[in-house]
Amino acid sequence: MASAEPLTALSRWYLYAIHGYFCEVMFTAAWEFVVNFNWKFPGVTSVWALFIYGTSILIVERMYLRLRGRCPLLVRCLIYTLWTYLWEFTTGFILRQFNACPWDYSQFDFDFMGLITLEYAVPWFCGALIMEQFIIRNTLRLRFDKDAEPGEPGGPPALANGHVKTD
């Protein structure tokens, strides 16, 4: 049997970056529809989102591995949400120095410097829950088979009716 190893940190970062990028586009499309009833669903983001989401979720993955047995799920999600606000503010502040910050929350009632807004607290919390329970947990379960040849079938033994075939 081939030796399957966990994905590297760079591989996981890539998956997290693509996931965050996709979610950003879908969220902005949904927001545009709800706020302006725009049936075109124009989702937008910035190439900076790849770095921002990939790095942030990789850091949250480390938090998850340290906290999962020590505190309840809702407390962990609160910690992730606070981290998200800190990360969004920090990256936005740095990008703003180069006139490259792709978001501006100045029009929101509870914004801080236009870089973060409390109106997104519930979506960030829900996103943190989804991130831990589905994205991080399943990404950590993925394995890379170094011995597999491209294009050849591989993986676990064939299944029949949900059970491993033992011919």
TrEMBL record:
Membrane topology: Multi-pass membrane protein
Residues passing through the membrane, by range: 13-34, 46-65, 77-95, 115-136
Keywords: Membrane, Transmembrane, Transmembrane helix
Primary localization class, coarse: membrane
Pfam families: ABC_trans_CmpB (PF06541)
Renumbered residue ranges of the record's region Disordered: 148-167
GO BP: macrophage activation; response to bacterium
Signal peptide: none
GO CC aspect terms: membrane
Compartments in which it is found: Membrane
Family: Belongs to the TMEM229 family.
Protein name: Transmembrane protein 229B
Lineage: Eukaryota, Metazoa, Chordata, Craniata, Vertebrata
